Amino acid sequence: MTEDSFDLNHSDNQGESLKSSPSEPSADQKREISNWVAEGIGLSDIQKKINTDFGIVMTYMDVRFLVDDLNLTLQDAEEPIAPKADGADDANQDPSTAGDPLTATGGVTVELDTVNPPGAMASGSVVFSDGQSKKWTLDQYGRLGLSGGDTDYKPSDEDVAEFQKQLDTALRGRGF
C-alpha cells in the first residue's frame, strides 16, 4: 500500500515555496473597506474592489460576513424625492383618497412574504388598481409567476409596469 504525502510548500526548486495570495484583508485594508461602506458602495462593488485593489479573491458571502464582522451598516441608496408640482399639495388632495395605499402609489401595492415557499427566492402578493389581487413568486432563475385570484384576469399595462417597478424596489430593499 502506498501513501501519498502532499507538502503545500513543496516546489521543484529547493529554496522556493509556493506563495498564495492572502485570503483575508489586513487591518489597513479593512479600514479602507469601512470607508467604502461609509461612501455607500454596494457589496458586489466592494467585492470587485477588494479583488482589483488588494488582489484578494472573496466570494460575495465572504464580503457580506466581513462587513458584518466589522460591525458596518450598508447604506441603501436613497431615491430622490420629486418636488411637488405647483398647486399639488396635501391640502388639495381628495380626502377620500388620503392615506389610501392604492391611490398613493399609482394604484398597485406589492407585499413581500417573510417566508418563501419551496423553490422560490422571493414571494408575496400584489393588489392592482382595480382591486384584483394575485400571489407572485420569483424562482431561482429569475422567472416571475402570478397565481390565485381570477384566472382570466389580465392587469392593465400601466399596472404591470407599476408592479414591476414596486417589485424591483421591494426586492432591492431585501438585498436582491
Contiguous runs where pLDDT drops below 50 for at least 5 residues: 8-21, 87-105
Question: Given the C-alpha coordinates, what overall shape results?
Answer: elongated
Helix content: 25-40%
- Radius of gyration (CA) equals 25 Å
Nutshell version of this structure?
The protein is built from five helices and four strands, in the order ααααββββα. By secondary structure, the chain is an alpha+beta fold.
Describe the structure.
Helix 1 (27-38) packs antiparallel against helix 2 (43-54). The chain has helices at 27-38, 43-54, 60-69, 101-104, 157-173; strands at 109-112, 120-127, 133-139, 144-147. The chain has a 4-stranded antiparallel beta sheet, covered by helices on one side. Among the domains are: 27-69; 101-173, no CATH class. By secondary structure, it is an alpha+beta fold.
